[in-house]
Amino acid sequence: MTVKVSSQVLAGVTVVALEGEINSTTSGGLQSQLLPFIGHGSTVLIDLTGISYVSSAGLRTLLIVHRHAQQLDAEITLVGLSEEVSFVMSATGFLDFFRIADDLDTELERTGR
């Protein structure tokens, strides 16, 4: 099982869409796919609309991405969290690490690009 990763640049913002489950089997590969999208001072929207489940290994991967972004003064926003994913991230305090947006269009407007 893998997480499908697709990306596009919209109005100067990198949008990375994920689809599948982020678990112990998929998290390592996902981490290696996400980190190259984060550059110095970049803005990256990670679209989780297609993610149905995040395990503790998945949370760890997202935390590593967050820390990498901090080192590069990049902005990461998580978009489209399902109710289950939002609950898990809230219960573990992970929502405090990220900017969260309900939908991609609204967040692209916010970036003003």
Automatic annotation (TrEMBL):
It comes from the Bacteria. Residues 3-111 form the STAS domain. InterPro entries: Anti-sigma_ant, STAS_dom, STAS_dom_sf. It holds the Pfam family STAS. Belongs to the anti-sigma-factor antagonist family. NCBIfam families: ant_ant_sig (TIGR00377). This is Anti-sigma factor antagonist.
